[in-house]
Amino acid sequence: MDATPATDDPLGIAVEPVERWLTQQLPNVRPPFRYTRITGGHSNLTYLLSDLDARRWVLRRPPVGRLLATAHDVLREHDVMLRVAGTGVPVPRMLGACDDERVTGAPFYVMEYVDGIVVTTAADADALLPDTDARIRAGTSLIDALAALHHIDVDAVGLGRLARRSGYLDRQLKRWADQWEASRLGNLGGMAGLHSWLTEHQPAETGPRLVHGDFRLGNTLTDRAGSVQAVLDWELCTLGEPLLDLAYFLRSWTAPDLRPGFARPIVTLPGFASGEELAAHYVQRSGRSIEELDYWRAFTAWRSAAILAGVYRRYLDGQMGERPDDLEAYRAEVISRIEQGLSVVR
Question: Are the C-beta atoms of 256 and 264 separated by less than 8 Å?
Answer without folding.
Answer: yes
